[in-house]
Design a protein that fits this description.
elongated; six-stranded mixed sheet; about 375 residues; about 45% helix; alpha/beta
Length: about 375
């Protein structure tokens, strides 16, 4: 199933799009061939990024390959959607056949549409939304607590140290008591994090940082991820519990580990007299956190699809794929992520960080 989704469908989409591009371009065969070859090469760079060969390239070239290959999959999606609409219009006798054959006007219009769409998507990704969240509790937590919550930083070849420094400044400006990160701090390879000294940047955070692992920590290698977190001053909670003031934070290992503890087991290790927060990267089986009696759960992983209409898929797969949710006395927040995987585009979704204020409920 995964082979079909990640290999067969993209390659079929590539063949469909390239055929239409070949027919549409109003140039001679050599020029059309060169353009089709360039598009193919850009897409095939994606597969380089899934291999360790990228780590052998100079850092700048490796970053360019990552950006090109991983952006191409999203551009391909919108190109296929555009040609599908044109084909449907042609079959419905709304779009003339001449629009799709050696037509410079159609080619220019599509190019302009893609340029505008993905320029917007890039700047929308760059804009980080500050999401306030108020959590009231009957439990005695002492004083009010301000907690900055994030997920899915995906630090690596595309989210480099300069961008991370901007995020650290945003978080420090909130003057939080605690910072929680719900997994996927590392995108994959640790090489760009180590070469750029990103651990030094993360150590600038002015509050204790607690995190749980995500599936990308497992993809890149958990041993290396743990070493990086320690260097960065991040306390990685893998089926373990930490107490900060009146808060008890439970960090679940990622579901990539089939032997991880259940929420009920972890709640047995927690001080239930305190406000309990479960940090679990992937928001599956939210009812289990409710049944275990936790007060709040922070998750990420979904990115809310990154682009529309993929967001429709995540909405169908998860009980909650983005935003606030509640089950009985347990509240949830599923973040769409501070960073992103792949191309830096957000269309119909957003990058965000949550600023939660946890306070004693007034009676």
């Amino acid at each position: 199933m995964w082979i079909i989704i990640f290999f067969v469908l993209p390659l079929a989409g590539l063949a469909y799009a390239l055929w239409h591009i070949w027919c549409l371009l109003p140039f001679g065969a050599p020029w059309r061939g060169a353009i089709v070859a360039m598009c193919t090469l850009a897409f095939l760079t994606l597969f380089l990024n899934f291999s360790r060969l990228i780590d052998r390239l100079p850092l700048g070239l490796a970053s360019a390959c990552y950006e090109t290959g991983n952006s191409s999959i999203f551009i391909l999606l919108y190109t296929v959607m555009a040609f599908l609409l044109l084909d449907i219009g042609r079959l419905a006798h709304v779009v003339p056949r001449s629009w799709l054959h050696a037509n410079g006007y159609t080619a220019a219009a599509l190019l302009a549409l893609m340029a505008v769409t993905f320029t917007y998507g890039y700047f929308n990704y760059r804009h980080k939304v500050r999401q306030p969240l108020e959590l009231a509790t009957a439990k005695d937590i002492g004083r009010d607590m301000k907690v900055v919550m994030m997920s899915d930083l995906h630090l690596g070849y595309h989210n480099r140290r300069k961008e991370l420094a901007r995020w650290v400044n945003m978080v420090n400006a909130e003057r939080p008591d605690l910072i929680l990160i719900a997994g996927d701090i590392v995108d994959g390879s640790l090489r760009p994090l180590e070469e750029e000294g990103m651990a030094d940047e993360l150590r600038r955070l002015d509050a204790p940082v607690l995190a749980c692992p995500g599936n990308h920590e497992y993809i890149g290698g958990m041993a290396g991820a743990e070493r990086f977190m320690a260097e960065a001053g991040i306390t990685l909670l893998r089926d373990s519990v930490a107490t900060v003031g009146g808060l008890c934070v439970i960090g679940r290992d990622d579901r990539s580990n089939p032997r991880r503890k259940s929420v009920a087991q972890l709640m047995g290790m927690a001080d239930s007299s305190k406000f309990t927060i479960v940090v679990d990267h992937q928001p599956y089986h939210l009812e289990r956190t409710e049944r275990a009696g936790a007060d709040f759960q922070l998750s990420g992983h979904t990115h809310h699809g990154q682009l529309w209409p993929i967001s429709w898929i995540t909405d169908a797969v998860y009980e909650c794929s983005f935003g606030q949710w509640q089950r009985d006395g347990t509240r949830y927040y599923v973040s769409s992520g501070m960073g992103i995987w792949g191309g830096k585009f957000r269309i119909g979704t957003r990058s965000e960080y949550v600023v939660a204020t946890i306070k004693r409920a007034t009676r």
